[in-house]
Amino acid sequence: MAKVLIIGGGGAGLVSALSAHEAGAEVIVMTKTLPTRSQTSMAQGGMNAVLGEGDSVANHIADTLKSSVGLGNEKQIAFMCENAPDAVRWCNTMGLPYSRDESGEIARRRLGGASAPRACYAQDYTGLKLLHTLYDQCLKAGITFLNERFLLNIIVDEASNRALGATCLNIPTGDVEEIRADAVIMATGGYGALYGKHSTNSVGSTGDGIAAAIRAGARLADLEFIQFHPTALKSSSILISESARGAGGFLLNAKGERFTDELGPRDVVARAIHDEIVSGGAVYLDIRHLGEEFISHELPQERKLAQIYEGIDPVHDLIPIKPAAHYSMGGIEVNDECMTSVSGLFAVGECANHKTHGANRLGGNSLLELVVFGRHCGKSAAVFAQKKSVSDIANGQLSKDIHFISEVMSFSNRIDFYAKQESLAEIFYTNVGLVREEKGLQSVLDAIGQMQKELSQMGPKDKSKICNTNLVEFIEFGNKIELSEIIVVSAINRSESRGAHYRGDVPVRDDELFGTQTITWKEDGVLCTNLMK
Amino acid sequence: MKILVKRSHEDAPQGFEVDLENVTLLTILNHVKTKVDATLTYSQGCRSGVCGSCAVRVNGREVLMCEYKPSDGDLVEPMRNASVIRDLVVESSAVEHFNRMGNAWSEASREGNVSEEAMSGIGTQSDCILCAACFSACPVYAVNPDFIGPFALTRVWRYVSDPRQTKSDEKITAIQTNGIWDCTLCGECVPVCPQGIAPKQDIAMLRTKSSILGYNDPNMSFGGGLDFGAPIF
Questions:
Q1: What is the tens place of the pLDDT at every residue in B170-215?
Q2: With a cut of 0.90, is the ipTM above it?
Q3: Is A140 on the interface with B (CB under 8 A)?
Q4: Looking at residue A254, which CATH number applies to its domain?
Q5: Residue ranges making up the domain that contains A440
Q6: Searching chain B, which residue's CA lies closest to the CA of residue A146?
Q7: Which residues of B touch A136 (CB under 8 A)?
Q8: Chain B touched by A111 (CB under 8 Å)
Q9: Is-contact B88 B78, C-beta < 8 A?
Q10: Where are the beta strands (DSSP E) in A23-175?
Q11: Whole domain around residue B48: which residue ranges?
């Protein structure tokens, strides 16, 4: 039976798993933690779909296209939006407990940039409930899970540019392993954790799959586009869902005045907040007027988290907020079948660039994307695996990676990588954040170059073989460094402002020179970049 | 503030003195790992109480490290009923194993409208984050390691009581052996749930449902005398 290996057990990975299984493939899901611990659990807002009257698929397409600021592909967006109602119903059939409106239909709420309420939700736990419902269906389908396997590299047959599987570190045992397959799906999520304490993401969102993909010869697209969520808790960057504003929450500046349309696109609102914080020192989210009953019922997570992390109760107090890195629009370049430029290597979800979000993602479109493209990708990969199965081609990646781990374990440790990681996050938030300028970007690039040189003087302090999370975190740091160079180079090259990429020194959009995607790849280890359609 | 952590390589807990106030236990351990002792081993993820990675026991009671604010002298230990891999990381296969044993999934669901009120019955149950706090707190595992247990049984109840579920009766079969009747209804699982779920109640509901469908408590059916067969409400 044709075998499909899926790397990543979040929403995109699990939907692909179900779809590849349904298409007749043997499916293995490899994940660095447990599937239910992935980033998808943190998604709150909802999943966009046009279900009833008063809205139309054409509007959903138009809103998404507009928000993408010229970088979205209309065909891909139409594919996503047209399949959205079916995706929502499919989740409903699996048992996803959506919230309901008065008529008993799946309830929808309005999120920023949407011309109608179309985010189908399950309280403020949409991602959590979706992820767990999918996990349960995977268990029912008998899908094999290899948990606590940290991806090292994709195994590629260089002569045929064909993916053969992946190598990983078995975290509990400390052994390096290889898993062979006829097709590999990357579903490893984004790279928001690069921003450290200025990100809403899980600490695991370190872009491991994207870094492994470019090492394997795949091309990446638009890595400079990172969405900043307008409302994260000020001290912890914990997300306060857009639904708080969708329900009528206000943004107030230090003087207690409203200063922007709360439901504008995320890039616009986030920059307005950034500017207010710079000029006035603070911005607050005010949901007090929504009332205790509403807040407890519709926003229970937000209330609890604000109490724990800010020591305030949103029912009675203003919530101190700031924008924080939230979603990676950029990712692995894929074609219409979700295949990367490496044959047999697919990518889906946040780690991929499906050309649906472009320069700025709409709230409610990421859960949608992972369901629609997950179903498509799983099937594509299964069909590919069945048509083009690979025999056991000899490959040296496993022995290379065994050597790599033993080498990393012997790094000198003269420089503390945790301190460097924190400093990388700080300079990224300041210089590769909401407002960027060439000078600042260049200084970050220099700092990255220095860190690259110093990597061998860093390394894990913990020398244990068993469950060495210090080692895992060091390799994650290596992946962050690898991606950070690509992000900054792309941000320097894109000498214009568009969506989430705002250049303070070039605050205008320039379609003539930059109305295209930034494509990056590596040749003999050297980063190459090009703007191309 | 001093935090004591049970490490896997030594019997006595190790003390860490930290100069941090009013922060979560996870923040403290992250401080220790990145600044003091890189070998300290634990799991973490979202730091906002939804991924279920960071459950441990503090002074004998299960908590999520990202939601718990410690006091001076707190003792942090790994979860119970699973072997320790290292320090605060325990073997995690129970989650998958027991959900599979209990067939804790939707069998078939009907389309169509359903009221918010009808759905509200599974709102809390579907908030489960699979942190396994309830599993760690459950005393039944001391006598029956095959007990399907609180998180999986709550999950089964979630699907059985879902108004859209069309084959909910079939789901009852999988939880008769090593399932609902093995629970002692002691309630240890209830206060430790970070999501406010009460597995004990869900198990009681499954017993009622089972009784209605003609299943009996095997512990009550011996001797032929005192078989009350009474559902527990």
A1: 899 999 999 999 999 999 999 999 999 999 999 999 999 999 999 9
A2: yes
A3: yes
A4: 3.90.700.10
A5: 397-532
A6: B93
A7: 99, 104-106, 155, 159
A8: no
A9: yes
A10: 26-30, 47-48, 108-109, 119-120, 144-146, 149-157, 162-170
A11: 2-90
